[in-house]
Amino acid sequence: MPDSGTAQWVRLCELNALAPTDARGFDLQGRGVDDLFVVRRHALLRGYINSCPHWPGASLPWRKHAYLDQGANHIVCHGHGAKFTLDDGLCVSGPCAGQHLQAVALRIEEGRYVSALLPMPR
């Protein structure tokens, strides 16, 4: 995402488009690679930049929307198998252990839309 001094709320999707346990990526710049992704696990809703701290710029999923492990307990980097917690993006195993995914602020608008606070290009 471009660096900027200003930020803007951008509507991503309707909340009901995310299953109770789900992850969904968003290609906001039309590059064919997700810029960010949203994780939902019941009441937990978190957003992260799609970039592994071990290899900045490396996309995490092995296919579109495939951010979670089989049990949907961790976010996984397909490149190195690093595992991250859902609630704060902390790497708990792999080459970037102790590092965090870059969080994106989220909010629910009008009781049904998921929006993210994103830097705007200058």
Automatic annotation (TrEMBL):
SUPFAM superfamilies: ISP domain (SSF50022). The keyword Ribonucleoprotein does not apply. Pfam families: Rieske. Signal peptide: none annotated. Residues 10-115 form the Rieske domain. Keywords: 2Fe-2S, Iron, Iron-sulfur, Metal-binding. PROSITE patterns: RIESKE. InterPro entries: Rieske_2Fe-2S (IPR017941), Rieske_2Fe-2S_sf (IPR036922). CDD domains: Rieske. Gene3D superfamilies: Rieske [2Fe-2S] iron-sulphur domain. This is Nitrite reductase/ring-hydroxylating ferredoxin subunit. It comes from Paraburkholderia terricola.
